[in-house]
Amino acid sequence: MVDIETYVQEKLSKIGFEFEVGNAELFLHWLETYLQRKIHLVPLPTLGLGVYGRWISLSDSDSEYIFYSEGMSLLTKELTICHELAHILEGHVTLCVTKAELASLFNTPFFLETALAREKTEQTDYEDKVAEKMAEVIVGSMMGKAQQDTVMHLLSSNHFLCDYLDVMGMS
After folding, report:
1. C-alpha 140 chain-centroid distance
2. pLDDT 10s digits, 8-65
3. Helix (H) or strand (E) holding 41
4. Spatial separation of the C-alpha atoms in residues 133 and 139, rounded to whole Å
5. Looking at beta carbons, which pairs linking 98-103 to residues 24 or more positions away fall under 8 Å?
6. 33: CB partners within 8 A, 6+ apart
7. With 80 as the cut, is the pLDDT of residue 158 above it?
8. 62 contacts 37 by C-beta, under 8 angstroms
9. Geometric angle at alpha carbon 132, from 112 and 35, rounded to 5°
C-alpha cells in the first residue's frame, strides 16, 4: 500500500493542478471546473467543539456546500477549506441531501451538532488523513510559491544587492 504522502503527490500530479500564488478559493474554482460541480462556501459562527469544517452534497443538483467556522486564523481557514475540497476531490462519502432538506436543516434545532456530525470509523480516519495531507500540500505549495515570488521581487528591486551579486558572480 502506498503511503499517504506519496499518494497525495501522485494524485495532485495526475489531476494537473498547477500550483501558483493563490489561496483555497483558487483551488475551489479550479476544482469546480475539473469536477463540473458548483462548490459553495458557507461561514458559520461555530460548528461545534473541535470542528472547523464540514461538507454536504446535494443529491438533486450539481452542488456541494462547505461549512466552516468563522473567526479562524487565515491559515486555519485555508487548511480547513482545502481539507474539505480534498474530500470532494477524492469522492469520499458525506451527508447527501436535497435542496429542500438542506434548507430545512437551517431551521432545525441543533442543526450543527446533528446534521454535520460525522461518524468516526477506520475508513473515515484514513480519509481524514488523506484530506489533511492534501490540504497541507496544496496550501504549502501555494504559500511557498507566494514567498518565492516575494523574495525574487525584493531581490530584483534592490539594485545594490543585484550589483553585489553580480560582482560575486552569483547573479
Report:
1. 11
2. 888 888 988 776 657 888 889 999 999 999 999 999 887 766 778 889 999 988 999 9
3. strand 38-44
4. 10
5. 98/58, 98/59, 98/60, 99/58, 99/60, 99/61, 102/56, 102/58, 102/65
6. none
7. no
8. yes
9. 80
Q: Which H helix or E strand runs over 40?
A: strand 38-44
Proportion of the chain above pLDDT 90, given as a percent: 20
pTM over 0.85? The answer is: no
Quickly tell me which residue has 436535497 as its cell. Answer: 98
Neighbours of 168 (CB within 10 A): 8
Map 43-72 to HEC letters: EECCCCCCCCEEEEEECCCCEEEEEEECCC
The Cα 68–Cα 73 span in angstroms is: 12
For residue 146, the model assigns a pLDDT of 52
The pLDDT value recorded for residue 121 is 72
CA distance 113 to 69: 13
Strands 38-44 and 53-58: unpaired
